[in-house]
Amino acid sequence: MTTVPPGRSRPAITLVVVLLAFVTVPMSISGAAVALPDIGDDLHTAGAPLQWVMNAYNLTFASFMLVTGSAADLFGRRRAFATGASVFAVGSLAAAVAPGIVLLDIARALSGIGAAGVFASGGAILATTFDGAARTRAFAALGSAAGLGLAAGPTLSGWLVGALGWRATFGLHAALVAVALAGIGFVAESRAPQRPRLDVTGAVVFVAGLGLLVLGAVQGPEWGWASPGVLALLVVGVGLLVFFVVLQSRSAAPVLDLTLVKNRRFFALCMVPVVSTFGFVTLLTYLPTYLVGASGFSAERAGTVLLLMTAPVLLAPPLSGALVNRGVSPRVLITVSLVLFAGGNAWLTVIESDSSVAAIAGPLLMTGLGAGISFGVGDGTAMSLVEPEQAGMATGFLNTMRIGSEAIVIAVYGAVLVSLISTRVGSQELAAKVAAGDQSVSGSGVLADGFTHALHIALYGTAAVCAVGAVAIAVALAPPRRDTAAATPAREDAQLSTEVA
Fold first, then answer.
1. Greater confidence, 485 or 44?
2. Would 237 disulfide with which of 19, 165, 213, 313, CB 3.0-4.6 Å?
3. Read out DSSP for 135-198?
4. Inside any domain, residue 421
5. Does the pLDDT at position 350 exceed 90?
6. Residue 276 · residue 413 · CB < 8 Å
7. pLDDT of residue 486
């Protein structure tokens, strides 16, 4: 059900409002990382309290995504978007004026809750505002916006930190979302026709379960994966998520309708961002530390090199969306994107501490192109497979898979790197400094060789995951058997394209 104030709804303004928010939310992840050293110096803190500037945001962002998406379907997607954006802006403003690290961490956790509302309802707004080819173009633009925020975050934050200090970074995020909120009156309100009471018990169990699971993954490298605290967090988190599934199977108004998960093709499309985390986000996180710690690059030069991987993320989504509108199967494009991840990661094993930028340009461009294609096609295709009344829930689940996998995979990937480096350098503490790109230990041939050895093994591992994921997702996206018997191969390939357009 859609309600529109007479003469007020403007699809073009709706798109701009959502895109501006989708630029800002990932910018708050990548931009905050650059500000950490200055935050530590200014607030006289280090270690875990400082790291929680990032972890608190990611933890609440992932944990509240599904709940805010389901709430958007019930209470209104525009209302959920406006509420989430307001909470994000307040949290960012509080972070900008925080006098100490504890209040800064709390403000970042609040921002993460708001970010979940923005992401879960923003995609649902576009899915219910646009149809056919226009929806494909809108989601392609959404992919470019998210990629722009992720790529531009470190650069903008670096400039602001250098010119005005770290507080200006969070002030910018608050200001950008405030500008987006100025256009919220031109966004049509929509909600599910049935408005049952929100399953509060299911919501609490899910937030607690996923929160504990992500917390266990985040703390694993610091406390030790076999420590009682980490094991307890992981076991209780998994147990609560299993209990959540049981609750949802018996609920008349579930937070997550399990028929969504049972939809083979929708679930396969929700796994695309998980594979993207392995193939793209891990490199976005750890390649700069390699270039700084092992190759001796400055932070600015490492960021510039990374543009080889992030530039295609900005340019490819509109191209892939246009190809879908011209009849190219989304299944083919998604499979190609995952194969590019596998090839790019495997090819990047040519990297050595003394490699030239030209030597690694090819694999970085290939990996970035894979990300750009999947960003432009995956979400829009997934939303085409669900009913409009479930748009918020579906977007929430899709982005829960995306953000949750990022928090967990990045933590595990970092722990694997440290473990592999320590086998070469003989010290877990020294290995952690090397993996973090600590310039105080850079320049040593032994340490650089240890980091290179670890990175090569990790790259082969992620390439294997992406290759398996490409095959599994391609198979899962195949048309149902009952359609295959009467369909020509060309019609099978075109089926998802028809559903999108």
1. 44
2. 213
3. HHHHHHHHHHHHHHHHHHHHHHHHHHHHHT-THHHHHHHHHHHHHHHTTGGGSPEE--S--PPP
4. yes
5. yes
6. no
7. 46
How confident is the model at residue 2, as a pLDDT? Answer: 47
Last residue of a domain, one of 147, 162, 189: 189
List the structure tokens of 314: 């900005």
Q: Which residues contact 91 (CB under 8 A, 6 or more apart)?
A: 107, 108, 109, 110, 111, 112, 113, 114
- In 3D space, the residue among 180, 186, 188 whose CA is nearest the CA of residue 21 turns out to be 180
Contact 402, 272 (CB under 8 A): no
Residues 6 and 136 in one domain: yes
Three-state secondary structure along 303-357?
HHHHHHHHHHHHHHHHHHHHHHHCCCCHHHHHHHHHHHHHHHHHHHHHCCCCCCH
Q: How many helices (H) and strands (E) in the chain?
A: 20, 2
Render pLDDT for 214-234 as a digit per residue (tens, 0 to 9).
Answer: 888 878 877 888 899 999 999
Q: What is the dihedral of CA 228, 231, 233, 238, to 10 degrees?
A: -160
* Rounded-to-integer distance, Cα 288 and Cα 451, Å: 12
CB atoms within 10 A of CB 56: 21
pLDDT at 501: 47
pLDDT value of position 490? 44
The predicted model scores a pTM of: 0.79
Per the domain annotation, does 194 fall within a domain? no
Q: Express each pLDDT in 367-381 by its tens digit.
A: 999 988 887 787 778
Percent of the chain scoring above 90 in pLDDT: 30
User: Residue 439 gets which letter from DSSP?
Assistant: G
Q: Which of 136, 22, 9, 19 is nearest to 399 (CA)?
A: 22
Whether residue 14 sits in one domain with residue 140: yes
User: Rg of the chain over CA atoms, in angstroms?
Assistant: 22
* Contact call for residues 396 and 70 (beta carbons, < 8 A): yes
Instruction: Provide the CB-side half-sphere exposure for 380 (13 A, CA).
Output: 40
Q: Contact at 8 Å (CB) between 26 and 150?
A: yes
Helix, strand, coil proportions of the chain in percent (round to 5)? 85, 0, 15
User: How many structural domains does the chain have?
Assistant: 3
CATH at 21: 1.20.1250.20
If asked whether residues 227 and 317 sit together in one domain, one would say no
The answer to whether residues 347 and 439 belong to one domain is: yes
The structure tokens listed for 467 are 């290759």
**Same domain, yes or no: 103 and 208:** no
> Could you give the CA distance from residue 168 to residue 136 in angstroms, rounded to a whole number?
35
Which residue range(s) make up the domain with 44? 1-189
User: Three-state secondary structure along 214-232?
Assistant: HHHHHHHHHHCCCCHHHHH
- H helices of 263-298, in order, are 264-276, 282-293
